[in-house]
Amino acid sequence: xxxxxxxxxxxxxxxxxxxxxxxxxxxxxxxxxxxxxxxxxxxxxxxxxxxxxxxxxxxxxxxxxxxxxxxxxxxxxxxxxxxxxxxxxxxxxxxxxxxxxxxxxxxxxxxxxxxxxxxxxxxxxxxxxxxxxxxxxxxxxxxxxxxxxxxxxxxxxxxxxxxxxxxxxxxxxxxxxxxxxxxxxxxxxxxxxxxxxxxxxxxxxxxxxxxxxxxxxxxxxxxxxxx
Amino acid sequence: xxxxxxxxxxxxxxxxxxxxxxxxxxxxxxxxxxxxxxxxxxxxxxxxxxxxxxxxxxxxxxxxxxxxxxxxxxxxxxxxxxxxxxxxxxxxxxxxxxxxxxxxxxxxxxxxxxxxxxxxxxxxxxxxxxxxxxxxxxxxxxxxxxxxxxxxxxxxxxxxxxxxxxxxxxxxxxxxxxxxxxxxxxxxxxxxxxxxxxxxxxxxxxxxxxxxxxxxxxxxxxxxxxxxxxxxxxxxxxxxxxxxxxxxxxxxx
Amino acid sequence: xxxxxxxxxxxxxxxxxxxxxxxxxxxxxxxxxxxxxxxxxxxxxxxxxxxxxxxx
Lengths: 227, 253, 56
Hints:
The complex is a heterotrimer of chains A (227), B (253) and C (56).
Chain A: H1 6-23, H2 25-28, H3 30-46, H4 50-73, H5 75-83, H6 85-91, H7 96-125, H8 133-158, H9 165-191, H10 197-226
Chain B: H1 3-11, H2 14-46, H3 60-87, H4 90-122, H5 130-151, H6 155-168, H7 172-182, H8 202-234, H9 239-244
Chain C: H1 2-6, H2 11-55
């Protein structure tokens, strides 16, 4: 690996981001706790009747994961903006889209992957029928990177704003609605015994498209926001 | 130089555009009111009642033009946004941001009048079918663009960021338009076609087209009016703006 | 005539829809009028403050 090449830059960025998350690994638990608490609120609100809970389980877990990821999206660029390394990334000779792709990947890995790991626990809390669990995990595995990618574009537009929390949610939600509809739709189809591969394939197609286009869009958005 | 190209370049100058818009605005409002009067006369009096829906179908004459305008406004906003991002033309930034609230207003009217139409005909105020859901998403996209534009301090950077967001959200437009073809929806499929015959009686069609024309003219009037004010705020330090102010009490300049 | 206003039973829905149309678009037409007055007022005030600062 040539020092100074794009691949070594990406590798360095990946190691740095992982190291930074590791140093504050307590913070990485917050989205998990948030998701568990949100999911736990539903039996309190709707009553513990398992028929009711298992009907809404898949969709509720999806929304809880979505909201946890939304809350942690802000952290994607914040620390880099504060210490000036974001501007270094923007002016570096390496393609900004590739560098952002690495950052988004690490963000997904440290935010969404733990959520997917605890998804079986969330499923148990809401009495999700066991055969639906693999479909839920597949749908989450496809929808959460989509959310990271689309979210990154919106965060790039609002980077540097102090009170961007609500605005960020307003920007991301309309764009993420299709992923939610198809992801939860796949789970509901599986739960009712229908075929579920079509929505999952749609999610996969959008994920492939987004993984190419979103880093480019986020790079352009970042250049707009940082001028 | 080609006079059309020259006129186009002149429009880029804020004081020229301000005067141009100011001259055209009264005419545009007048045309809107006349066309709307003619259209509403046709909608309420000469169009026969629908054999199935009775008089409730007259809501179509406000619902459909606003639906068309909500989509048109978004296209106008995104197109100007694209020009603003690629060629950095200040006027395009202003026009794009001026069209966002108007488009949001039309989309809001579409949703409310649609709900009022749905209750007597479908029996429900709302349903989550593809057309209604994507139209609601369109309204949220408008709110996002407006919200982002007002959240950033620097007006030009704000316009560019909001224009970028508008372009990202443009994927929703074909979804709204084709939702009734791609999915089984409660909302009816299209009966009015640009090419080929429409599946609607002519006596019912002409008021719709007249009102569509009226709302288009109104859209441009509103965008021009809002752009004029935006230019005043953007160029507040310049001489041409100062010349517009009411005479100051102290004769100092 | 009363049949026309009653819209054969659909009066509430039809007239509410037309009312929403009128109210929202009139509000949209008036907004730039007020905004323009406010903008001119603000610019005048700002210039006056800047001028008084220079002379003070």
